[in-house]
Amino acid sequence: MSTIGYESWAVDLADVGAIYPFQGWEIPMVIAGVAFWLWWHVAQSRLEKEHMANSAKSADPKKVAEALDRY
Amino acid sequence: MDGNLNALTTIFTEFYYWVTVVFMFLIHVGFCMYEVGVSRRKNHMHTLMKNVMIIPLVTITFFFFGWWIYWAFPAFPVIGGIDFAAGKANLPWSDTMATNTSDRITGVFWAAFLLFSWTAASIVSGSVIERIRSSALWIHAILIGSVWWIIDAAWGWSATGWMVQKLGYHDAYASGVIHAIAGGYALGILLVLGPRIGKFAPDGTPRDIPPHNPWMVTIGLFMIYTGFWGFYAACNIPLISPEGIGGEITGTVWTATNIYLAPTTLGAITFNFLMSLSGGLMATYIISKGDPFWTFSGGLAGIIGASAGNDLYHPIQALLVGAIVPVIAYKLHYYVERRFKIDDAVGAVAVHGYSGFLGVVIAGFILWGAPSSPYEGFATINPLGQFIGAVIMFFGLGFIPAYVVAKIQMARGTLRIPLEIELQGLDFTDNLIYEEAVAEITAAHHEQLNAGT
């Protein structure tokens, strides 16, 4: 058994096409990839929200004033 | 070169490797920028020189004996002896190791491997900055660049290596043969060298030592990405006929191959390079909470994690492997830092070592049963062979030799810089000379100005 469909290279390359593993599973793989992409946006926006909340909480007015001049 | 087709193929191949070598130079430029960006101002010049001098030292030793090792050691010592016949044409006094119109490939092929050697040494260099003696690092650079990594390449990254034949070892773009070994090697030195002063609080809690210039770090890493493109291309044979391969492939269709002479395409590795980079960037952004240093390093770790199988993976497999590996490497970095008090200044052990190790092992599962070679009788790719291969790379040829040599250097007092030098900075004297020179020339100009008015 071979995940790429070939157990040896005793083949004529004229007859060979796709050689990636798990051929036939392209649609589930795309679903997994899309799920990862969408998860990333959810996770990122949660992180950003947390970051903003923490930044706002810890802002010292004196340091904020100094930051204005730093540009 | 008899015949126009042969001549065209030879010249194309010669030019192809030449271009990859030029691209790969950017890896070293990137490492230099990265290291200087991470180091503190008091250590800049020494940090830079430590890495730059890797170039000549590894180059000449790779010419003297490194390249010969690659050709002579594929079977030694597991399934045969040293192959003196194959090594002969690659000895430094061979006429093919010079200007020779009947051999246009050896020079560029040698250079492509040499640039990998620089990379292996440079990975180690970054992790030990700001406290190692340059003299000690340069010994290690020669050992990993011109001895240990090229032995592992002979064993696991050549068409006839014993690891390929017996274990079915598959590591197309060097997750193990460059990155795992270099990460393991760095860890071996770090364990003996110890952390920078102040890295750990008295209670053992690690302190962050932030890079002095994040922008330099960013550009350095982006240059490493760019050079990595060249590295990927350099790992392929660009064009070869079935007769040229001489294995089981039948018919007349020419192909690009990986280093094992098994079919792949530049298109495949272009897909997979970008998808694994993306997976690494995205996942590490989340796990590091948007830390730029780790996010960019995670992109690199994503590529490294998928590199073992990126000649064959589907792009989405490359994406997901590239996402998973850096997350594990990131977690391991902080675990090892706390548990063993390891101060890896650039995270090289994680980004290269752990990611490379994991990448080799994961490829064993995803590519299970695929042929490792176009030759008859070779083991097929399998998880156990990959795991053994990863252990050989990380521990056998990386960690252990580094640890032993570093112990000897430490015992002789030649590994670490003195405490007072570390505190005042390696560039202290140079900076004084610089400031005195500036003061002197400025005073001279003022004098001239006053005299003229």
Quick take:
The complex is a heterodimer of chains A (71) and B (453). Chain A is mostly helical and 71 residues long.
Principal-axes shape call of chain A: rod-shaped
Give the total of beta strands of chain B: 3
CATH superfamily of chain B: Ammonium transporter AmtB like domains
How would you sum up the major sheet of chain A?
none
Counted by DSSP, the helix tally of chain A is 2
Percent range for helical residues of chain B? Answer: 55-70%
N→C terminal distance of chain B: 74 Å
Please give the share of residues in helix of chain A.
55-70%
- Main β-sheet description of chain B: 3 strands, antiparallel
Q: What's the level 1 CATH class of chain B?
A: Mainly Alpha
Overview of this structure, please?
The complex is a heterodimer of chains A (71) and B (453). By secondary structure, chain A is mainly alpha-helical. Chain A has a domain at 24-70. In chain A, 61% of the residues lie in helices and 0% in strands. Chain A contains 2 helices and no strands. Chain A has helices spanning 26-58, 61-70. The longest helix of chain A has 33 residues, at 26-58. Chain A is rod-shaped. Chain B is mainly α. Chain B has one domain: Ammonium transporter AmtB like domains (Ammonium transporter fold, Orthogonal Bundle). Helices cover 68% and strands 2% of the residues of chain B. Chain B is built from 17 helices and 3 strands. At the A-B interface, helix 1 of A face strand 3, helix 11 and helix 13 of B.
Chart the SSEs and their pairings:
The complex is a heterodimer of chains A (71) and B (453).
Chain A: H1 26-58, H2 61-70
Chain B: H1 4-38, H2 44-52, H3 54-72, H4 84-88, H5 106-127, H6 134-156, H7 162-167, H8 175-193, H9 214-234, E1 237-240, H10 242-245, E2 255-257, E3 263-264, H11 266-287, H12 292-307, H13 315-340, H14 348-366, H15 383-411, H16 419-424, H17 428-452
Antiparallel strand pairs in B: 1-2, 2-3
Helix pairs in contact in B: 1-2, 1-5, 1-9, 3-5, 3-6, 5-6, 5-8, 6-8, 6-15, 8-14, 8-15, 9-12, 11-12, 11-13, 12-13, 12-14, 13-14, 14-15
